[in-house]
Amino acid sequence: MELLGTCTALLVIWISFLLLSATWKSKMYRKGKMPPGPTPLPIFGNVLQLKGKYWDQEFSKISETYGPVFTFYLGMEPVVVLNGYEAIKEALIDQGNDFSFRAKIPLIDKLNKGGGIMFSNGKTWKQLRQFTLTTFRNFGMGKRSIEERIQKEIQYLLEQFHDTKGQPFDPHYLMINAVSSVIGSVIFGKHYGYDDKKFQTFITQIIESIEIFASICGQLFYAFPAFMEWFPGPHQHVIANYVKLKEFILEEAKEHRATLDPNSPRDFIDCFLIRMDQEKHDEASEFTMENMVTCCIDLFGAGTETTSSTLKYGLLLLQKYPEIEEKVHEEIDRVVGRSRMPGMADRRQMPYIDAVIHEIQRFMSLASVSIPHSVVKDTPFRGYVIPKGTTVFPVLISVLHDGKEFPNPTEFDPGHFLNEDGTFRKSDYFMPFSAGKRVCVGESMAHMELFLFFTSIIQNFKLKPITDPKDIDITPLEKPLGRFPRPYEFCVIPR
């Protein structure tokens, strides 16, 4: 009986291997149309090349051999990798419609089932993205009302900075709280205190899930979903987190429903509920409670970690380069003074600070590889044909660190965004929010937050590192698809 069981197990393994091999050969058959790339192994593809490495660095090395467009296999799935400004611009902008689909990410698909803004496609994506942009505009995206929401939150943050009384502290949670509270005011219509336990838990679960997605474990789920689905690990915690996030948002929606005034929407959830009521007889409507929940999670996920990490990195860089901080102080004192808060109208007169903020984003290249795209149809591209549904990885850091556009790409230099006469210099290579039709829906809001938070902090405080500036480590803490500031402490001295 034991021998029979062993033989049965071996037979199952052998049949599974044959099925996988057949699937592999059918996928490899398409390779003749695809760009060249490193030879993949059966089943594993090229994943072993990424072991212990940062994806953008490995992709850069491969592009030296195969050019700016090549094929890389994640498990048995072919991925077309785009390196450099010309290739990414040609795909995402010049052929934007063809490359406008979002690739399927197994772990995310398992959670949102193709809904929301960030990872949906077709009618769902178009309608929810347009609704979100319109709603943000109506609430003052780039106008006074959202600016006031941000300024109000800045006042809370400055109070927290003052409370440190010049002692060393880690800005991590303060920055996350401040940025997430801005998003919370737009989505939920209210300010959550920094000691609100339910909201703190909500944000912690979002940040934790983002970190898992960006980890090696999260990337293995991308390459081997059928195996990782049953394999224990942190990725299983993401599923439990999603359930709790959903419960929090549904509870907020229930409160909104009870006090809803269709003629006076207060926030994003109110607007969504009103649209749901307008389309309640349309069985094909995209405005469902499930999509509302996913949209809210998408907006928090996209806007919390990115903006807070950029602010943290910016403050670290100014400690490293006190001469740059002094120039920032001088421009703030000259244009704004110290008797009022900075406003967006001031930015036109503050080219140096604008350049510093752009350089922070360029230098850190937080999203070194864009959220994966996919082609809508069989797409001719640079002499190849990319089959419909193929995943596409634009490597954004290859644009942000382009040596011709930015002469010192690995150095922090605000001069990259300044003309010789000191005016601000725009660059088409500035793509921290990606480019084309899938550019981040919250880009305008992020620009406002970065300028207002950054300028207000420097207006009120002088940064004091706890070590000699030359010893400050500004190399990023890299994960497979992103770069983040290392944990640090510093002091702030009121000016």
TrEMBL record:
One example GO MF annotation: iron ion binding
Places the protein is found: Endoplasmic reticulum membrane; Microsome membrane
Membrane association type: Peripheral membrane protein
GO cellular component: endoplasmic reticulum membrane
EC number: 1.14.14.1
One Pfam family here: p450
Catalytic EC class: oxidoreductase
Primary location recorded for the protein, binned into one broad class: endoplasmic reticulum
Binding residues for heme: C440
SUPFAM superfamilies on file: Cytochrome P450
Gene3D superfamilies linked to this entry: Cytochrome P450
UniProt entry keywords in alphabetical sequence: Endoplasmic reticulum, Heme, Iron, Membrane, Metal-binding, Microsome, Monooxygenase, Oxidoreductase
PROSITE patterns per the UniProt record, alphabetical: CYTOCHROME_P450 (PS00086)
Cofactor section: heme
Family the UniProt entry places it in: Belongs to the cytochrome P450 family.
PANTHER family the UniProt entry points to: CYTOCHROME P450 2E1, CYTOCHROME P450 508A4-RELATED
Record's protein name: unspecific monooxygenase
Organism: Anolis carolinensis (Green anole)
Organism lineage: Eukaryota, Metazoa, Chordata, Craniata, Vertebrata
